[in-house]
Automatic annotation (TrEMBL):
<dbReference type="InterPro" id="IPR029044">
    <property type="entry name" value="Nucleotide-diphossugar_trans"/>
</dbReference>
<dbReference type="InterPro" id="IPR001173">
    <property type="entry name" value="Glyco_trans_2-like"/>
</dbReference>
<dbReference type="Pfam" id="PF00535">
    <property type="entry name" value="Glycos_transf_2"/>
</dbReference>
<dbReference type="InterPro" id="IPR011990">
    <property type="entry name" value="TPR-like_helical_dom_sf"/>
</dbReference>
<protein>
    <submittedName>
        <fullName>Glycosyltransferase</fullName>
    </submittedName>
</protein>
<feature type="domain" description="Glycosyltransferase 2-like">
    <location>
        <begin position="5"/>
        <end position="138"/>
    </location>
</feature>
Amino acid sequence: MVTVSLCMIVKNEEGTIGSCLSSIAKAVDEIIIVDTGSTDQTKAIVRTFTDKVYDFKWIDDFAAARNFAFRQATMDYILWLDADDILKEEDCNKLVKLKKDLDLSVDSVTMVYNYAFDEYGNPTSRFRRNRLVKRENNFKWIGAIHEYLEVKGNIVNSDISVTHCRVHHKSDRNLKIFQNRLMRGEIFTPRDLYYYANELLDHQKYNKAITYYDKFLATGKGWVEDEISSCGKLADCYNKIGNKEKELESVFRSFRYDSPRADFCCRLGFHFLNRNLYETAIFWYKLATQLKRPDDDWGFSDPTCSTWLPHLQLCVCYDRLGHHETAYEHNEKARSYRPRDSSVLQNKKYLESILKKNE
């Protein structure tokens, strides 16, 4: 059976670090915590799980801190998490089993990252990450901010999920790091341009975000998933500043990089629904229901747009066209995903009363 070192970097995580470590402790053989300047009870909580706690002077470089943490590991493989991540019990058990079965020829194991959720606990944002890597390969983290783990070799996609439990308030830390780098005259990579644009969008600096998304796309050197994501985020920016024409143009722009994705189909469906062009809206919403993303996909995906949402909107479209039986069928499909959704239940009651009258 292989052994695993959990390596984490933390700062002022007293609200989440205990839950994180409790959720994973039984599945790892070593816990290494690198603290970058906590002033709360983070270290005290961590020391109830491990004595391998190290200080690292913060230098506005996440990759440097993570690489330092990885250098402290002594086991066969290294697992990394953030302090507001957990493994649910079933996923922790899967990891325990993986350790028993894992062949040492494997260089990296990926896991799904469930990053955001709706009010019913269903994922609304998920993607894959290399989570468990062979220590002797000395894989390195790249990038001062929004860092990534550069991995190659024999990569296995697991069915283990890491669950994000974000409790932090919005911070301008990352934005300031980017701005300081610009002031120092640093040349941004395409990846830097993309993530700087994301920070600008998050801080409602829409026009400047548009500028940097366009700069990123103009390089032609970004990861295709980031290029597609940029089109969606450009559409968000144009929506916020009231430019509907550019918003629609940004949605169609995504088709340059790949076949239509479900979230963009839903955007188009919503656009035509609002213009009372129900047949056209139906076309796009139906297409969204047919575009299932594979479980091993690396891109960012919102399962909402290929599950309940297009069916709920199809219900609206067909109802307005007077096709109540078809509207009811789609509402029932939406209800199969969200059985407690008040809108779905209201539709059910409304449509059943109409269908009863028509009998």
